[in-house]
C-alpha cells in the first residue's frame, strides 16, 4: 500500500505544534501514514519537549537551521512513497491523506491544497480565493506540498542555498515540467505574520521578493532582504 510521510520543519513552534500533531492524527486514516517526522532547526522554546511529552509515535530529528535543510533531512529519513511537507501553523482538511492518495493514483505526482487564512481581512480572503486556480503566481509554501519521493529525488530536493523561498524554488521546477495540481479542499493557515507586520506592508515585501527572484536575485540577496524587512 502506498503511504505518506509527513514532514514538518519547526523552529520555536510551541504554540501550535501540539494542536497540529493531534489534528493530523484525527483527520487521517493512520493506515495511510507511514510516519510523521518533525525536524527541529534549533528551537529555544519548549517545542521539542512538548512533542516528546505527547506520547505519540512521532519521529523528532534535529537539523541545522533552514527549512530546506530541515525538509531534506526529513525526506532522507522518510519511508513513505509520498512526501507531504507541511508548515507548523497550517492545518490540512479532513481526510487529507485520501485526497493526496487519490491525486497520486490519478497520475498527479505533486501538488497542494487550496488555502484559507484564519482571518476575515478582505485581501487575505481574496488571496485565498485565488489559490483555487493553477496559476503559478498563486502558489506558496503555506498551501503545503505533496510530491512522490521518486520525483522529489529526481529534482534534487530542496535547494539548500535558499534560507527562504525554498518552497517556491521547488514549485517552479515542478511547473516547468508540468507536474503540479491543486486539490480544491482547503488547508487553513495562520495569518499571524500578516497580523504582526500589517497586511499591506507584508504583502509589499512578499511581492518584492518574488520580483527580485524573477529578475535573477541570488538566494543570499533574497535572504538579506527578508532579514532586513520581515524577520527583524
Set out the fold topology:
Blueprint: E1 4-10, H1 17-26, E2 33-40, H2 47-53, E3 58-62, H3 67-76, E4 82-85, E5 90-91, H4 96-105, E6 110-117, H5 122-130, E7 145-148, H6 149-154, H7 166-176, E8 181-189, H8 192-197, H9 199-214, H10 219-231
Parallel strand pairs: 1-2, 1-4, 2-3, 6-8
Antiparallel strand pairs: 4-7, 5-8, 6-7
List keywords for this structure.
Spore Coat Polysaccharide Biosynthesis Protein SpsA, Chain A; alpha/beta; 2 domains; globular; 232 residues; 10 helices
CATH class of the largest domain: Alpha Beta
The total domain count is 2
- CATH topology-level fold name of the largest domain: Spore Coat Polysaccharide Biosynthesis Protein SpsA, Chain A
**CATH 2nd-level architecture of the largest domain:** Alpha-Beta Complex
> Number of helix segments?
10
CATH homologous superfamily heading of the largest domain: Spore Coat Polysaccharide Biosynthesis Protein SpsA, Chain A
Helical content, roughly? 40-55%
Sheet with most strands: strand arrangement: 3-2-1-4-7-6-8-5
Series of H and E elements: EHEHEHEEHEHEHHEHHH
Total strands: 8
Binned strand content: 15-25%
In whole angstroms, how far apart are the ends?
A: 46 Å
Overall spatial form: globular
Specify Rg, calculated over alpha carbons: 17 Å
Mean pLDDT: 95
Q: Show unreliable segments.
A: none
The biggest beta sheet reads: 8 strands, mixed
Structural class: alpha/beta
Amino acid at each position: 500500500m502506498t503511504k505518506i510521510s509527513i514532514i514538518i520543519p519547526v523552529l520555536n513552534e510551541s504554540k501550535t505544534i501540539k494542536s497540529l500533531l493531534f489534528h493530523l492524527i484525527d483527520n487521517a486514516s493512520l493506515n495511510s501514514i507511514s510516519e510523521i517526522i518533525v525536524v527541529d532547526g534549533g528551537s529555544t522554546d519548549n517545542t521539542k519537549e512538548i512533542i516528546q511529552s505527547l506520547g505519540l509515535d512521532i519521529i523528532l530529528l534535529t537539523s541545522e537551521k533552514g527549512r530546506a535543510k530541515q525538509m531534506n533531512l526529513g525526506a532522507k529519513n522518510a519511508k513513505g512513497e509520498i512526501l507531504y511537507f507541511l508548515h507548523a501553523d497550517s492545518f490540512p482538511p479532513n481526510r487529507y491523506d485520501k485526497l493526496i492518495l487519490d491525486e497520486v493514483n490519478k497520475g498527479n505526482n505533486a501538488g497542494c491544497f487550496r488555502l484559507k487564512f484564519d482571518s476575515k481581512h478582505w485581501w487575505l480572503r481574496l488571496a485565498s480565493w485565488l489559490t483555487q486556480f493553477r496559476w503559478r503566481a498563486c502558489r506558496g509554501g503555506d498551501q503545503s506540498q505533496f510530491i512522490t519521493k521518486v520525483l522529489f529525488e529526481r529534482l534534487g530536493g530542496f535547494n539548500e542555498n535558499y534560507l527562504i523561498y525554498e518552497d517556491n524554488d521547488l514549485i517552479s521546477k515542478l511547473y516547468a515540467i508540468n507536474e503540479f495540481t491543486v486539490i480544491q479542499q482547503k488547508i487553513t493557515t495562520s495569518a499571524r505574520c500578516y497580523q504582526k507586520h500589517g497586511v499591506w506592508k507584508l504583502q509589499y515585501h512578499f511581492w518584492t521578493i518574488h520580483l527580485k527572484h524573477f529578475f535573477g536575485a541570488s538566494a543570499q540577496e533574497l535572504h538579506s532582504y527578508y532579514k532586513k524587512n520581515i524577520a527583524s
